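Lecture notes, continued. The same structure-token format from the folding unit now serves as the input rather than the output. Read the line below as a description of shape only.
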């Protein structure tokens, strides 16, 4: 092998090593981007869960206030009923109608609260499933990157061993 051929072989190997180094740098950038994407998805999930929790607590507080208000109204109606025992039958019927309406409203509010809770749970489960899928894709990309890195490392080691043998032959 002539000096020119050896020089060309060394330059070719150097270009291959440079290309492999650039590929490795790109793989590292991809892995970092994947990690950032996963962190962003996790943050979004945490924010969504926190918003759902706040919504649920607010709905629960409104429901409790409404129940307490209903209880207070019911007690007031009972007191008025005791005080107005001599009132006409029509007056008693109107009080009963008011109480029924109040109970119907409370039942409707309870149904709406249950529906909101179920919707929040469904949204949470969807977000959780999406986050798990994102995590699985991220893990798969990381595994693929690791496999490629190992293959690249093996190629570089083989190239370096070949260069070493060439240098040893040249040195002899």
């Amino acid at each position: 092998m002539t000096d020119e051929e050896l020089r060309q072989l060394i330059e070719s190997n150097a270009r291959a090593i440079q290309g492999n180094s650039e590929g490795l740098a790109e793989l590292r950038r991809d892995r970092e981007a994947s990690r950032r994407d996963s962190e962003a998805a996790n943050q979004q999930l945490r924010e969504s869960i926190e918003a759902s929790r706040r919504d649920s607590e607010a709905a629960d507080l409104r429901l409790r206030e409404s129940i307490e208000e209903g209880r207070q109204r019911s007690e007031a109606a009972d007191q008025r009923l005791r005080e107005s025992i001599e009132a006409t039958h029509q007056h008693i019927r109107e009080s009963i109608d008011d109480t029924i309406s109040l109970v119907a409203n409370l039942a409707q509010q309870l149904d709406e609260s249950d529906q909101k809770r179920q919707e929040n749970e469904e949204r949470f489960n969807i977000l959780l499933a999406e986050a798990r899928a994102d995590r699985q894709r991220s893990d798969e990309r990381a595994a693929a990157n690791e496999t490629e890195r190992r293959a690249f490392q093996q190629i570089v080691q083989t190239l370096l061993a070949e260069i070493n043998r060439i240098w040893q032959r040249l040195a002899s």
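Point for the exam: The chain has a mean pLDDT of 85.
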